[in-house]
Write the structure tokens for this entry.
Amino acid sequence: MAVKILSVDDETDLELLLTQFFRRKIRKGEYEFYFAHNGLEALQFLLKYPDISIILSDINMPEMDGLTLLAKINEMRVPSRKCIMVSAYGDMDNIRHAMNGGAFDFATKPIDLDDLQLTIDKAIEQIEYIKGAQKEHAELVDIQSDLSVAREIQQGILPRSFVRKMADSDLVDVFASMDAAKDVGGDFYDLFPIDDHRIGFAIADVSGKGVPAAIFMAVSHTLIKATGIRDLASNECIATVNDILCNESVGSMFVTVFYGIYDMQTGAIDYTCAGHNPPYILHADGSVEMLKTECNLVLGAVDGVTFKNQSLQLNPGDALVMYTDGVTEAENREHAQFGESRLEATLAELKGAPSKQIVETIKTKIREFTDGAAQSDDITQLVIRRK
């Protein structure tokens, strides 16, 4: 597209001079000139043609001088528009005022057209740089808007009502939360009914961060729930999901998962740990025990793998505390990690606490420990407590 240049000068012979000197660029469509004879006419041109990029303006003109015109142009706040001021060689005070007032450059009369060509080229280079930066900024704003929507969608995937609608929901106390390190995260948790007294539950951590992890998270979340409601044993569910992910996985992504099936009437749990952090059991008497888990592979790495399941009995008052590594690997300003020992100490202070209090207390302890340091990983928790 042609660079649009507005020449503002009360001397009419300048129009002929510029069109003659730049005739080749005008003929090739590189430059497009407009001519005004004072500042008022120039403002009318700018209103009519807002894409004018360069203003070549005399300082001393009738009706509205160049300095006033420059001030009006600055009020329009168009960073990609550049003003080149023109005045007599001896008028350096006005030229200095123009440069202080935001002029891009200046030229003195009689105008050296070769030098003017270099100044225009320099202005065009600056204009293209600014327009490029504006375009990148607009794209970043659009991306940020899309990420905000994606965050809302992702948060909407995670359950909020837990097990309140089930017949035996008064026998169990469940709470969970996921705090993403970025706009969208790779962690997730889920709870869903399998029959009238059993629920499937999962907590997982996808490799990587950001949008790719969020997409893989959504796929993994859907597969685990869709497979789990078929009433398969926990290891059979995990094996099925693993084979599907291996066939569809891109970029060598994988996911660690702790998946279980909880019987709300008996407190029995059938669980399978696929490379995930071992949960803790907070017993009714206040003792804390790390759950023993089989060394199963992560999901999405190797298809056809056999996964081993295990069983657990929650007694009344016991709580199963599940988390992702964003909890134990949360760092403070000195890059020390929160660690398992601090998590265990926190749990030891929560004898008899409801699940929500357990989750919120751990989050508070992490905030106190990190002391304002940037969150480097998603922090996700899921607690199931037998009443």
